[in-house]
Each structure stands twice: as C-alpha cells, then as structure tokens.
Amino acid sequence: MTIARPPSVSRLLESEGGQVLLAQYGHKPTVAALRAAIEAGRAAESFDEGELLEAAAQGFAASDLPQLRPVWNLTGTVLHTNLGRAILPQAAVDAAAAAMARPVALEYDLATGKRGERDSVLREHLAELTGAPGSVLVNNNAAAVMLVLDTLAKGGEVIVSRGELIEIGGAFRMPDIMAATGAKLVEVGTTNRTHLKDYANAINENTRLIMKVHPSNFRIEGFTKDVTASELAPLAKQHGLPLVNDLGSGTLVDISRYGLPKEPTVAEAVAEGADLVTFSGDKLLGGPQAGFVVGRADLAEKLAKNPMKRALRLDKIRLAALEAVLRSYRAAARPEEAIPILAMLQRPSEEILARAKALAPLVAEALGEDWSVSVEPCRSQVGSGASPTATLPSAGLALRSVGAEEIEGLADRLRALPEPVIGRIAEGALRLDLRCLGRDEEPRFLANLASP
User: Fold this and answer.
1) Bridge partners for 379 per DSSP
2) Are 339 and 347 a contacting pair, CB within 8 Å?
3) Element (H, E) at 233
C-alpha cells in the first residue's frame, strides 16, 4: 500500500512482513534496516509499505552474502592475484576437505608412534620433482626469502645484482625484505648490465651469501648482460658462500611448451648449482599459497631450526592440498591433465574461439536487446609475475551498449550477480576472455548470467 507520508517503523514492525524480519534477524538489526529503507524511499518519494519491507529484506540478503565468494575470472589473466591465483586440482580440494574434517598425522610418525615433522610430508615428493634432498615449507615465497636471509645472512652482507632488485605486488620490495631480516644489501653492476667480476669484487669477510632473483614481473631488453646461476655457482663455492636462487613464481614444467617464453624450472635451478631455491606454491605450480625452499639438506635443517619458522609454517589444510598437487605431478603422464592452471595455459585458441561462437547468442539472450555481443580475438596473460611481457592468443566476447545503459553499469551488474562475473573494460566494450571458462562450466555460467 502506497501512502503519502513515510510509515512509522513501529507500524512496519507490526506488519506480517515486519514480524518475519523480527523473527529472523532480531529487533535492533530489523529497526536499522527499516529505517534505511524508509530513507531510501524518502529520496525516491515512494513509501509503498510492501516495497519498504522488501527493500529491508534485500538489504539483509545482501549482507548475508560472504565477502570471499566464488567469481568467474574472465579478465584474460589466468593467475589473477586479486582473484586468488591458482585453481586447485579436485584431488587437492578433496584432500584439504578431508584434513579439515578429520585428525591427520601432521606431526606424528605413524611408523614409530613418536612425534614427527610436518614438512616431511612433502619432502620425498619435492626431492623426486626437483632433485633437491632438503626442503622447508612456509606460507608464501616472501616468507621463504625472509627465512633464508634471517637464518644465513643476519648481520652480514648479501650480494645482489641491481637489475634484480624487484618490487612485487603491494609495493613489497626485495631491499625491504633484506632490511627486515638484518641483512645488508650490496648492489653490484648496473640496472641493465652485471658481470661475474662485479660479484667477485664485492665479496669480503662480511659476505654471507650471493643471491640471484628471477625478475619475473618485468623485462629489461636491449643492451643487457646478466650472470646466470650456473656461472655464479663456482664463484660461490670458491668462497664458501651459499648461492640462493629466488625463482619467485616457480614452475615444475617447461612452460615454453605452451608458446610462452622459457622460464627456469625448479629442477633446472637446482641442477645449475644453487644451494637453495625459493618459489611459490599458488602460481605456476598450481597449488595453494605456500613458499618453498629446496636445496642442500644441511641448509634446510638450519632453516627449520630458526624460531621464525614456527611463525611461518603451513597448517594441515594447505599441506594436505600441496601433497595432492605434488602427487598429481608425479602420477600424471602430462601435468596439463591434472593441474587446472596448466590446462588453461595450454588450451588452444581455436577451441576457445569455437566456444565463444557457441556462447555468443546465449549471452546476448541473457543480457537483452540493449546489448550487442560479438566474438573477437584477444590475448591472455599468465599473471602473478610470470612471463610478464608474453601473451597467448585467445578469444572472447565483447559486450557493447546499444541502449541507454553505460558500459560501467553493465560491469557493475555482472559483479552483483550471485556469482560475480569479472571482465575488463577496453576500447568501449566489456570484454570477457573465455580462456578460463571450462566447457563443463558453461551451463552454470549461463544460468548465473540470467539471474534476476
């Protein structure tokens, strides 16, 4: 019933709809929701009691939605940091769920019945996949680097090429990590050229280690020179210094098979002579967030004894998921068949184009006559600091307004769906790259798109 003046909160509370809200949400929240609905009605000069109650109910429904909920990543960035990076294999999801539901042998040796070590769960898998006998696990790669520096270089000097002093997401810089651990950074070479003699000339009695940092989130091209880990290894050994190779993203497979530039694998970094190699778990590896340190067993043992390790350790859920991921690598004839992120990277553009053509009319029907939907080629990127200048041919849908609604309004509406759809606005269109949309997911995607 529409009335000229706003109804009182008491009147709305006494109504049938008000009583339902009271029973479900309690008195104080219901009063606040009704007052907000009345204020919104005042701005719209509409005081229909049914609409006010419905607005209050919708407000509750929106507030009940979790903030961390699934979305559709159609941005064209496969490993999107803001959207959670890697999608885990189903085996890892199942393993994590089992670890959440039941006690597990986390720090318990089933063979002896005595206390065990949690990192040992993955040590055999990592040794097989990387060739490194020692390993330590922490909660991300930045933590892995911090643990290495705090254990091996506190109070001493660490030699790094100027061209490798990277900044990662959130303005987190390698020099800041070093400073936080009490290690002193010694820069050698220039931004674009560093030679082996630059490292050799910087070594003194205060030097604790030599560090190589893979510049995974940028490229320097032109008149350049860097020193490879295989060249640094003999120098480090000559002076009795550990060589640490921070791979950043880190991969267990050669991604050049997908048409991307060559990135050193973890096994290659170990074979080149690095004493310790650090890398991430939730990027090209395709697992949950984690930081790995693999290499010499004696150095790994030192890291494990650092009191900081306890503050950085992984819980049973992520360990269970990581074990399942590493088992998948060891068991699969082709990792792309077991690891979703690798499957997305190797997906042929012709296949994506065919799916885009099939989906275009269905998406157009869901959006309505105010929007045109065209199939257009595009380029996907890996994301999360991996192969930053390289892209893969892909295909997607370009949504353009033929009515009154602005393109930003459509982007807002898609993000407000039960399962938000995230694309990117470019050249007057909202673009949905379909590389990360699996064929078996299409029915659910279309149903979500048609949600009121």
Assistant:
1) 393
2) no
3) helix 229-238
Sign of CA dihedral 230, 273, 86, 88: positive
Distance CA 180, CA 213 (A): 17
Q: Which pLDDT tens digit goes with each residue over 86-120?
A: 999 999 999 999 999 999 999 999 999 999 999 99
Assess contact for 233 and 266: CB atoms under 8 A: no
Same fold, 72-82+343-449 and 90-335: no
Inter-residue contact 121 to 268 (CB < 8 Å): no
- Tell me the angle at which helices 49-64 and 16-25 cross, rounded to the nearest 10 degrees: 20
- Going by C-alpha positions, the residue among 340, 343, 320, 339 that lies closest to residue 331 is 339
Query: In this model, does residue 1 exceed pLDDT 70?
Result: no
d(CA 78, CA 383): 6
3-state secondary structure 244-310: EEEEECCCCCCHHHHCCCCCCCHHHHHHCCCCEEEEECCCCCCCCCCEEEEECHHHHHHHHHCCHHH
Model pTM? 0.85
Residue range 90-335 in CATH 3.30.420.40: no
Per-residue pLDDT of 178-207, as tens digits, reads 778 888 889 998 877 889 999 999 999 999
Q: SS3 for 221?
A: coil
Sequence spans of domains, the chain: 9-64, 72-82+343-449, 90-335
How far is 56 from 30, CA to CA, in rounded Å? 8
Report the SS3 class of residue 137: strand
DSSP state of 168: E
Band (pLDDT 50/70/90 cuts) for residue 366 is very high
Q: Which pairing describes strands 371-383 and 429-433: parallel, antiparallel, or unpaired?
A: unpaired
| Residue that wins the pLDDT comparison between 151 and 162 | 151
Kindly tell me if the per-residue pLDDT of 3 is higher than 60: no
Token representation of residue 418: 């039960």
The domain made up of 72-82+343-449 has a fold known as Aspartate Aminotransferase, domain 1 (3.90.1150)
275, amino acid identity: D
Give the C-alpha distances (Å, rounded to integers) separating 330 from 180, 210, 262.
37, 32, 22
> 220 falls in which pLDDT band (50, 70, 90)?
low
- Residues contacting residue 54 through CB under 8 Å, at least 6 positions apart: 17
